[in-house]
Amino acid sequence: MYLSIIIPTLNEEKYLPKLLESIKKQTFKDYEIIVADAGSKDKTVEIAKKYGCKIVKGGLPAQGRNNGAKHAQGELLLFLDADSILPTKFFLEKAIKEFNKRKLSVASCGFLPADKSVYLPYKAVVNYFRFIRFLMIALENIFPFGIGACIFAEKSFHNSIGGFAESLKLAEDNNYIKKAASRSKYGVLRSVYFSTSVRRFDKEKWVRPFMLYLLAAFLVLDEKKLRLFNKGIFEYRYGNYYDIIKEKGLSLNAKNITDKLTKKINYNKIKIKREISLIKNKIKKIIEKI
Q1: Domain range holding 130?
Q2: Given phi > 0 = left and psi -120 to 50 = alpha, else beta, which region is 134?
Q3: What is the pLDDT of residues 214-250, one digit of tens each?
Q4: b/e per residue, 179-204, with b = 16+ CB within 10 A?
Q5: pLDDT tens sequence across 154-196
Q6: What is the DSSP letter of 70?
Q7: Beta bridge partners of 193
Q8: Cβ burial, residue 261 (10 Å; 0-12/13-18/19+)
Q9: Under a CB-based contact definition with an 8 Å cutoff, are residues 8 and 38 in contact?
Q10: Quick one: which of 38, 224, 256, 266 is 20 to 30 A from 285 by CA?
Q11: What is the per-residue DSSP string for 38-58?
C-alpha cells in the first residue's frame, strides 16, 4: 500500500459519495481510504463502508486527520475534506509524480469551487480561488500556506512533526504547513488542482469567514494566538461541525468549571489543614510553657 487517503467526516451523506466516486475513477489504484468519523447520525458511515473504506474514530478535523494517520498503512498520506472532489481521473497519478519528482515532504495545491454560491457569482468565486492559488505559489518559499481540504504528506514526516494541532479550531492546516516548511521541503503542486464546496463560506455569507482567514494568516506562526478562534466573537464555527461543537462545548464548559472548582476545593482543603496544623502547634507550645 503506497497511499492512504484520510477523510474526516460528520454527517456527510450529501458530499461523501461524490468524493469517493472521484477517487474510484482514478488511474492510480494503490491506495486505501480511511474515513475518520465524528459520530455521524446520517448515512455517512454506511456509504463509507459501501465503498470499502476503513472506519476509525474522528472528531474535529485535526483530530480526525491525526487518528486516520495512526491507522494508515501507506507511506504517503493524502488528507481530503469530505466536500472535496478530484476533478480528473489523473489527479492522483499526476500529483504523486510531481510530489516525488520535487522530493517534497508536504504539499498542497490550488482549488476551484465544486458548487455555486448563493451569494456570489460563480466567476467571482473562481477568480477568488485562483487568486488564492497565485498567492500560495508566489509565497511558497517566503510565507508558505495551503488549505487542509487537500494536503499530501509523507507519513514518517507527519509523525515526526506531531501531526495537526488538535487544540486549534481554525488555521490548523496552515499551522501544520508552517511547521512542516520550517523542518523540510513544502511545495504547492502545479500539475493538479481539486474542487471544494463553498458551503462554509455561504453559511456565514462570505464576509466573516474571509476576515477570520485573513486574521489567521497573520497569527499562523503562533499556535497560542490561533486559539483566539476557539471562542468569543472570533470563534470559527466549522460549518457542519458547529452543531457538535456546541453540544460538546456545553459539556466541555461544564467539565472545565467542575475541574476548576475541584482544584479550588482541594487547594482550600490543603490550606485549611496547614492552618489547623499551625494552630495545633501553637496551642501545644502554649501548653508546654504553662
Answers
A1: 3-237
A2: alpha
A3: 666 655 545 554 454 445 433 444 456 555 555 555 4
A4: bbbeebebbbbeebbbbbbbbbbbbe
A5: 999 999 999 999 988 777 898 899 999 999 999 999 999 999 9
A6: H
A7: 110
A8: exposed
A9: yes
A10: 266
A11: S--SSSHHHHHHHTTPEEEE-
Which of 237, 258, 280 is the last residue in one of the domains? 237
Partners of 194 in beta bridges: 111
Question: Strands, E, within the chain: which ranges?
Answer: 3-9, 31-37, 54-57, 76-80, 84-85, 106-113, 150-154, 186-196
Give yes or no for residue 252 having a pLDDT over 90: no
Greater confidence, 65 or 257? 65
- φ/ψ of residue 237, rounded to 5: -95, 5
What's the CA gap between 178 and 145, in Å, rounded?
Answer: 7
Total tally of structural domains belonging to the chain: 2
Report pTM: 0.79
DSSP code for 164: S
Cα 261–229–14 angle (5° rounding)? Answer: 110
Please choose, from the candidates 165, 184, 167, 188, the residue with its C-alpha nearest in 3D space to the C-alpha of residue 176: 165
Q: How much of the chain exceeds pLDDT 70, in percent?
A: 74
Give the separation between CA 73 and CA 155, rounded to whole angstroms.
9
Phi and psi at residue 96, to the nearest 5°: -65, -40
pLDDT at 253: 47
Mean pLDDT of 105-129: 95
- Condensed to tens digits (0 to 9), the pLDDT of residues 12-35 reads 999 999 999 999 999 999 999 999
Q: What is the CATH number of the domain that holds 175?
A: 3.90.550.10
